[in-house]
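Lab notebook, design round three. We kept the backbone fixed and only want residue identities now. Task for the bench partner: fill in a sequence for the structure below.
Input C-alpha coordinates:
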Protein backbone atom coordinates (compact mmCIF):
# COMPACT_ATOMS: atom_id res chain seq x y z
CA UNK A 1 0.00 0.00 0.00
CA UNK A 2 1.41 3.40 -0.92
CA UNK A 3 0.25 6.97 -1.47
CA UNK A 4 -1.11 9.86 0.56
CA UNK A 5 -3.20 7.72 2.93
CA UNK A 6 -0.51 5.16 3.69
CA UNK A 7 0.88 6.55 6.94
CA UNK A 8 -2.39 7.37 8.69
CA UNK A 9 -4.24 4.31 7.39
CA UNK A 10 -1.42 2.00 8.44
CA UNK A 11 -1.11 3.63 11.86
CA UNK A 12 -4.86 3.36 12.44
CA UNK A 13 -5.09 -0.21 11.19
CA UNK A 14 -2.21 -1.33 13.38
CA UNK A 15 -4.43 -0.75 16.41
CA UNK A 16 -7.46 -2.34 14.74
CA UNK A 17 -5.82 -5.56 13.59
CA UNK A 18 -7.46 -7.67 16.32
CA UNK A 19 -10.92 -6.67 15.05
CA UNK A 20 -10.02 -7.53 11.46
CA UNK A 21 -8.47 -10.85 12.45
CA UNK A 22 -11.12 -12.07 14.91
CA UNK A 23 -14.33 -10.39 13.74
CA UNK A 24 -13.87 -9.93 9.99
CA UNK A 25 -11.66 -12.91 9.11
CA UNK A 26 -13.09 -15.14 11.85
CA UNK A 27 -9.66 -16.32 13.04
CA UNK A 28 -9.77 -17.55 16.63
CA UNK A 29 -6.08 -17.47 17.41
CA UNK A 30 -4.36 -18.70 20.52
CA UNK A 31 -1.44 -16.36 19.84
CA UNK A 32 -0.56 -13.67 17.30
CA UNK A 33 3.05 -12.63 16.78
CA UNK A 34 3.96 -9.61 14.57
CA UNK A 35 6.79 -10.30 12.11
CA UNK A 36 9.20 -8.08 10.20
CA UNK A 37 7.46 -6.75 7.09
CA UNK A 38 10.53 -6.01 4.97
CA UNK A 39 11.21 -8.95 2.69
CA UNK A 40 14.64 -8.89 1.09
CA UNK A 41 15.92 -11.66 -1.14
CA UNK A 42 17.28 -10.35 -4.47
CA UNK A 43 15.19 -7.17 -4.14
CA UNK A 44 13.42 -5.66 -1.15
CA UNK A 45 9.66 -5.52 -0.68
CA UNK A 46 7.71 -4.34 2.35
CA UNK A 47 4.34 -5.85 3.17
CA UNK A 48 1.73 -3.91 5.12
CA UNK A 49 1.33 -6.46 7.92
CA UNK A 50 2.79 -9.91 8.58
CA UNK A 51 1.60 -11.90 11.59
CA UNK A 52 2.41 -15.38 12.81
CA UNK A 53 -0.91 -17.01 13.77
CA UNK A 54 -1.05 -19.90 16.23
CA UNK A 55 -4.42 -21.64 16.46
CA UNK A 56 -5.70 -23.55 19.48
CA UNK A 57 -5.05 -26.88 17.75
CA UNK A 58 -1.37 -25.98 17.38
CA UNK A 59 -1.54 -25.00 13.70
CA UNK A 60 0.86 -22.17 12.82
CA UNK A 61 0.80 -20.06 9.67
CA UNK A 62 1.72 -16.59 8.40
CA UNK A 63 -1.10 -14.11 7.84
CA UNK A 64 -0.24 -11.48 5.25
CA UNK A 65 -2.56 -8.44 5.21
CA UNK A 66 -2.33 -5.84 2.46
CA UNK A 67 -4.43 -2.66 2.10
CA UNK A 68 -5.11 -1.01 -1.25
CA UNK A 69 -6.78 2.34 -1.97
CA UNK A 70 -6.83 2.09 -5.79
CA UNK A 71 -7.63 -0.58 -8.36
CA UNK A 72 -4.36 -2.07 -9.62
CA UNK A 73 -4.49 -4.58 -12.46
CA UNK A 74 -1.06 -5.86 -11.42
CA UNK A 75 -2.14 -6.62 -7.85
CA UNK A 76 -2.32 -10.43 -8.34
CA UNK A 77 1.31 -10.43 -9.49
CA UNK A 78 2.37 -8.23 -6.57
CA UNK A 79 0.63 -10.60 -4.16
CA UNK A 80 2.26 -13.60 -5.82
CA UNK A 81 5.72 -12.08 -5.32
CA UNK A 82 4.89 -11.43 -1.66
CA UNK A 83 3.71 -15.03 -1.31
CA UNK A 84 6.93 -16.46 -2.73
CA UNK A 85 9.13 -14.25 -0.55
CA UNK A 86 7.16 -14.90 2.65
CA UNK A 87 7.17 -18.68 2.24
CA UNK A 88 10.87 -18.69 1.35
CA UNK A 89 11.85 -16.52 4.34
CA UNK A 90 9.58 -17.96 7.05
CA UNK A 91 9.09 -21.52 5.78
CA UNK A 92 5.47 -21.71 6.92
CA UNK A 93 2.06 -21.85 5.18
CA UNK A 94 0.75 -18.42 4.17
CA UNK A 95 -2.74 -16.95 4.05
CA UNK A 96 -3.06 -13.67 2.15
CA UNK A 97 -5.89 -11.15 2.45
CA UNK A 98 -6.16 -7.91 0.49
CA UNK A 99 -8.48 -5.28 1.99
CA UNK A 100 -9.74 -2.72 -0.53
CA UNK A 101 -10.48 0.73 0.93
CA UNK A 102 -10.71 2.83 -2.26
CA UNK A 103 -13.42 5.21 -3.51
CA UNK A 104 -14.05 3.46 -6.82
CA UNK A 105 -15.88 0.16 -7.14
CA UNK A 106 -13.64 -2.84 -6.61
CA UNK A 107 -12.50 -4.17 -9.99
CA UNK A 108 -9.32 -6.06 -9.15
CA UNK A 109 -8.97 -9.79 -9.65
CA UNK A 110 -7.76 -11.95 -6.80
CA UNK A 111 -6.26 -14.75 -8.84
CA UNK A 112 -3.89 -15.76 -11.63
CA UNK A 113 -5.03 -18.64 -13.83
CA UNK A 114 -2.34 -19.49 -16.35
CA UNK A 115 -1.00 -22.59 -18.04
CA UNK A 116 0.05 -25.04 -15.30
CA UNK A 117 -0.27 -22.35 -12.62
CA UNK A 118 -3.09 -21.42 -10.26
CA UNK A 119 -2.71 -18.70 -7.64
CA UNK A 120 -5.43 -17.12 -5.52
CA UNK A 121 -5.83 -14.97 -2.40
CA UNK A 122 -8.72 -13.47 -0.45
CA UNK A 123 -9.92 -9.96 -1.29
CA UNK A 124 -12.38 -8.05 0.92
CA UNK A 125 -14.02 -4.74 0.09
CA UNK A 126 -14.29 -2.61 3.23
CA UNK A 127 -17.71 -1.46 2.02
CA UNK A 128 -18.97 -4.96 2.78
CA UNK A 129 -17.79 -4.93 6.41
CA UNK A 130 -20.35 -4.00 9.06
CA UNK A 131 -19.18 -0.71 10.59
CA UNK A 132 -20.58 -1.75 13.99
CA UNK A 133 -17.59 -4.08 14.39
CA UNK A 134 -15.46 -0.94 14.72
CA UNK A 135 -17.80 1.74 16.09
CA UNK A 136 -18.74 -0.39 19.10
CA UNK A 137 -15.07 -0.80 20.09
CA UNK A 138 -13.65 0.99 23.11
CA UNK A 139 -10.44 1.74 21.23
CA UNK A 140 -10.36 4.96 19.15
CA UNK A 141 -8.00 3.25 16.67
CA UNK A 142 -10.83 0.86 15.85
CA UNK A 143 -13.57 3.50 15.91
CA UNK A 144 -12.14 5.71 13.17
CA UNK A 145 -11.87 2.73 10.78
CA UNK A 146 -15.68 2.65 10.86
CA UNK A 147 -15.72 5.54 8.34
CA UNK A 148 -14.56 3.07 5.66
CA UNK A 149 -17.14 0.35 6.32
CA UNK A 150 -20.74 -0.40 5.37
CA UNK A 151 -23.20 2.11 6.84
CA UNK A 152 -26.12 -0.10 5.71
CA UNK A 153 -29.19 2.16 5.42
CA UNK A 154 -27.97 4.64 8.03
CA UNK A 155 -27.46 8.26 6.90
CA UNK A 156 -23.83 9.40 6.47
CA UNK A 157 -24.29 12.33 8.85
CA UNK A 158 -25.69 10.11 11.60
CA UNK A 159 -22.77 7.68 11.30
CA UNK A 160 -20.24 10.53 11.39
CA UNK A 161 -21.87 11.92 14.53
CA UNK A 162 -21.70 8.47 16.13
CA UNK A 163 -18.02 8.19 15.23
CA UNK A 164 -17.27 11.58 16.75
CA UNK A 165 -19.29 10.74 19.85
CA UNK A 166 -17.32 7.52 20.25
CA UNK A 167 -14.03 9.42 19.91
CA UNK A 168 -15.24 11.76 22.64
CA UNK A 169 -16.23 8.81 24.84
CA UNK A 170 -13.09 6.72 24.32
CA UNK A 171 -10.44 9.47 24.43
CA UNK A 172 -9.89 11.59 27.52
CA UNK A 173 -8.32 14.95 26.82
CA UNK A 174 -8.93 17.30 23.93
CA UNK A 175 -5.45 17.01 22.44
CA UNK A 176 -5.83 13.24 22.21
CA UNK A 177 -9.24 13.63 20.58
CA UNK A 178 -7.79 16.05 18.07
CA UNK A 179 -5.32 13.41 16.90
CA UNK A 180 -8.08 10.92 16.08
CA UNK A 181 -10.32 13.60 14.56
CA UNK A 182 -7.48 14.53 12.18
CA UNK A 183 -7.05 10.89 11.23
CA UNK A 184 -10.79 10.52 10.72
CA UNK A 185 -10.78 13.55 8.42
CA UNK A 186 -8.04 12.04 6.26
CA UNK A 187 -9.69 8.60 6.06
CA UNK A 188 -13.01 10.29 5.23
CA UNK A 189 -11.47 11.42 1.93
CA UNK A 190 -11.57 7.79 0.81
CA UNK A 191 -15.37 8.01 1.00
CA UNK A 192 -15.77 11.66 -0.12
CA UNK A 193 -17.02 12.50 3.38
CA UNK A 194 -14.33 14.91 4.57
CA UNK A 195 -16.53 18.01 4.25
CA UNK A 196 -19.28 16.37 6.29
CA UNK A 197 -16.77 15.43 8.98
CA UNK A 198 -15.54 19.06 9.07
CA UNK A 199 -19.12 20.31 9.44
CA UNK A 200 -19.97 17.93 12.27
CA UNK A 201 -16.71 18.64 14.12
CA UNK A 202 -17.44 22.37 14.03
CA UNK A 203 -20.90 21.82 15.53
CA UNK A 204 -19.82 19.50 18.34
CA UNK A 205 -17.96 20.33 21.54
CA UNK A 206 -14.82 18.55 20.41
CA UNK A 207 -12.71 21.56 19.49
CA UNK A 208 -11.53 24.03 22.09
CA UNK A 209 -10.31 27.62 22.29
CA UNK A 210 -6.70 27.53 21.11
CA UNK A 211 -5.77 30.76 22.90
CA UNK A 212 -6.62 29.26 26.29
CA UNK A 213 -4.91 25.93 25.68
CA UNK A 214 -2.05 25.50 28.15
CA UNK A 215 -0.31 22.87 26.04
CA UNK A 216 -0.37 25.17 23.02
CA UNK A 217 1.33 27.92 25.03
CA UNK A 218 3.81 25.43 26.47
CA UNK A 219 4.47 24.08 22.99
CA UNK A 220 5.37 27.55 21.71
CA UNK A 221 7.62 28.21 24.72
CA UNK A 222 9.30 24.80 24.54
CA UNK A 223 9.80 25.17 20.80
CA UNK A 224 11.55 28.49 21.27
CA UNK A 225 13.56 27.15 24.21
CA UNK A 226 14.60 24.10 22.23
CA UNK A 227 15.50 26.28 19.29
CA UNK A 228 17.65 28.53 21.47
CA UNK A 229 19.47 25.52 22.91
CA UNK A 230 20.18 24.14 19.46
CA UNK A 231 21.19 27.57 18.31
CA UNK A 232 23.69 27.98 21.15
CA UNK A 233 25.26 24.63 20.31
CA UNK A 234 25.64 25.71 16.70
CA UNK A 235 26.91 29.06 17.82
CA UNK A 236 30.06 27.46 19.24
CA UNK A 237 31.10 26.69 15.70
CA UNK A 238 29.54 29.51 13.69
CA UNK A 239 29.12 32.32 16.17
CA UNK A 240 26.85 32.65 19.17
CA UNK A 241 24.77 35.45 17.72
CA UNK A 242 24.03 33.72 14.43
CA UNK A 243 23.37 30.44 16.20
CA UNK A 244 20.82 31.94 18.58
CA UNK A 245 19.02 33.64 15.71
CA UNK A 246 18.79 30.37 13.81
CA UNK A 247 17.69 28.63 16.97
CA UNK A 248 14.94 31.19 17.53
CA UNK A 249 13.77 30.78 13.94
CA UNK A 250 13.69 27.01 14.26
CA UNK A 251 11.94 27.17 17.60
CA UNK A 252 9.36 29.61 16.29
CA UNK A 253 8.70 27.39 13.28
CA UNK A 254 8.16 24.38 15.57
CA UNK A 255 5.78 26.38 17.73
CA UNK A 256 3.92 27.69 14.68
CA UNK A 257 3.58 24.17 13.27
CA UNK A 258 2.05 22.98 16.53
CA UNK A 259 -0.28 25.99 16.61
CA UNK A 260 -1.46 25.43 13.03
CA UNK A 261 -2.14 21.76 13.69
CA UNK A 262 -4.06 22.42 16.89
CA UNK A 263 -6.22 25.24 15.49
CA UNK A 264 -6.83 24.20 11.90
CA UNK A 265 -6.16 20.44 11.98
CA UNK A 266 -4.12 18.66 9.30
CA UNK A 267 -5.12 21.22 6.65
CA UNK A 268 -3.29 23.94 8.59
CA UNK A 269 0.04 22.25 7.89
CA UNK A 270 -0.33 23.21 4.21
CA UNK A 271 1.07 26.63 5.19
CA UNK A 272 4.36 25.20 6.49
CA UNK A 273 5.92 25.33 3.01
CA UNK A 274 5.55 29.12 3.10
CA UNK A 275 6.60 29.44 6.74
CA UNK A 276 9.75 27.36 6.18
CA UNK A 277 10.95 30.08 3.77
CA UNK A 278 10.61 32.85 6.37
CA UNK A 279 14.00 33.55 7.94
CA UNK A 280 13.03 36.68 9.84
CA UNK A 281 12.34 36.38 13.59
CA UNK A 282 10.05 39.41 13.64
CA UNK A 283 7.92 38.04 10.79
CA UNK A 284 7.65 34.64 12.49
CA UNK A 285 6.54 36.36 15.70
CA UNK A 286 3.78 38.06 13.71
CA UNK A 287 2.71 34.70 12.30
CA UNK A 288 2.63 33.18 15.79
CA UNK A 289 0.35 36.01 16.95
CA UNK A 290 -1.70 35.73 13.77
CA UNK A 291 -2.57 32.09 14.49
CA UNK A 292 -4.44 33.20 17.59
CA UNK A 293 -6.45 35.88 15.79
CA UNK A 294 -7.01 34.39 12.34
CA UNK A 295 -10.45 32.91 11.78
CA UNK A 296 -9.45 30.85 8.73
CA UNK A 297 -6.44 29.44 6.91
CA UNK A 298 -7.02 31.85 4.01
CA UNK A 299 -6.87 34.83 6.37
CA UNK A 300 -3.55 33.62 7.76
CA UNK A 301 -2.27 32.92 4.23
CA UNK A 302 -3.06 36.51 3.20
CA UNK A 303 -0.98 37.73 6.13
CA UNK A 304 1.96 35.55 4.99
CA UNK A 305 1.81 36.93 1.46
CA UNK A 306 1.93 40.57 2.64
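Proposed sequence:
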Amino acid sequence: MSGRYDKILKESLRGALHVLISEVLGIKAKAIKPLKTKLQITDEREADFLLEITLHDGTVYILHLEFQATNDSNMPYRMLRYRIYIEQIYGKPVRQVLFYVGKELLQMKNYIHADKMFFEYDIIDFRNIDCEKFISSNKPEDVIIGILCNFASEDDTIVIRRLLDRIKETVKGELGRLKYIRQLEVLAQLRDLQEKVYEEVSEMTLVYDIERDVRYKQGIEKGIEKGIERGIEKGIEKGIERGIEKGLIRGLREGIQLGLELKFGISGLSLMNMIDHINNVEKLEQVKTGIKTASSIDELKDMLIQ
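Keep this in mind before ordering anything: The radius of gyration is 24 Å.
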